[in-house]
Design goal:
This protein has a domain of 99 residues. The protein is 60% helix and 7% strand. It has 7 helices and 2 strands; from the N terminus they run H-H-H-H-H-H-E-E-H. The protein has a two-stranded antiparallel sheet with strand order 1-2.
Length: 181
């Protein structure tokens, strides 16, 4: 098909138009376009005309060496993944535009879903445990029918002098007494 455009400009146009047309989520298209702009500035002229020749991992390695680590590795890895996804979707779109479905909208595999479910379960357990620990650290003291005061982080080995110090601080709040009982 002579009308297929595998160039850098073709990819950037695809990303812009796919966000407008609803083919891609606008945020996904925007993040992929940002990655493409940053990375594709460093490609050779023949790669600009035919992105199928591009090795994204090699490009990112080259950029990391050229930029002398001015781009954080995490950002470069993120750009790498986004550019690969953009290229995969772009090539799939060019192959069959009528039946195109973005890889960003496909359902994750059962293995990925199971891993995500395990991570979510662990996070919920951690939250529950931390809340339980917090509740144990708080001592409620009901001082009136309608008022309870909570003291947090009292040590188990509280000394008499430390308790007296806490008492003096509380007594400073007594209305007009200046801390005197």
């Amino acid at each position: 098909m002579a009308t297929e455009d595998y160039s850098k400009n073709g990819l950037l146009t695809y990303l812009r138009e796919s966000a407008r047309s609803g083919l891609l989520n606008p945020a996904v298209a925007r993040s992929r376009k940002i990655a493409a702009v940053h990375l594709l500035d460093h490609i050779e002229s023949e790669e600009r005309l035919n992105l199928r020749l591009l090795d994204v991992d090699h490009l990112c390695s080259k950029i990391h060496k050229l930029e002398d680590s001015s781009i954080r590795v995490e950002a470069l890895d993120l750009y790498n993944a986004r550019l690969k996804s953009a290229l995969e979707d772009y090539f799939n779109y060019l192959d069959d535009p009528d039946n195109f479905v973005s890889s960003s909208t496909k359902q994750p595999s059962a293995k990925i879903r199971k891993k995500k479910d395990c991570q979510e379960q662990k996070a919920l357990e951690d939250i529950t445990l931390s809340q339980t620990e917090q509740i144990q650290d708080i001592v409620p003291i009901k001082i009136r029918q309608d008022l309870t005061v909570f003291i947090k982080d009292l040590p188990m080995d509280l000394k008499t002098t430390e308790a007296e110090k806490i008492t003096r601080v509380v007594m400073a709040y007594v209305d007009g007494s200046g801390g005197k009982p």
